[in-house]
What does this fold into?
Amino acid sequence: MVNELLLTSLVGFAIVGSITPGPNNLMVMASGAAYGWRATVPHIMGIMIGFAVMTAAMNLGLGSLLAGVPALVWVVKTGGALWLLWLAFQLARAALRPAANRGEARAGGRPMRFHEAVLFQWINPKAWAMALAAAGAYAQLTPSLWSRTALIVTIFALCSPVANGVWVTMGEALHRLLSGPRAGRAFGLMMAALLAATAVSIFLASPEIAPPA
It folds into this structure.
């Protein structure tokens, strides 16, 4: 028997958690602006699959293990933050180059590949926080562990590509709007600053992770 109240809450949590700003959404937005929708699809699919695997793992016991190993949590946080800083540096460096159109951006770089997006979820602190929160808050969703895991994974898998798609569309729209060299440079620097700010917020956040209920 599925707790309908908790199920409704889970859907709302998945929608809000998936569409709010975070490393994944900022990166697909930048990818949409630089490479377009079609080239960003593998990135979106990698996010969906990577987070599905992570969420399943948290529900099946990984969250409880992590709660007892604070050093591992610190490593994940630090790795994720450093990765975001590196991405911010790359975006800023590209933005400060001589004016480049989308074709030149493609020639000088590439969108994130499917397997890279899958692996990135494991150093994405927002993904960790959401997966742990879902495992803990919705432990009473259904008595069956496997059914509960399948429900949580399925709901996030449905919400994630839609939410990412909104950000990709925003990136494409901004590319068309900011078509001039100066505007394009400003957009690139803005995206770099947002990623850097996200990385700093990760460093400042509390490292404590509570075990799932």
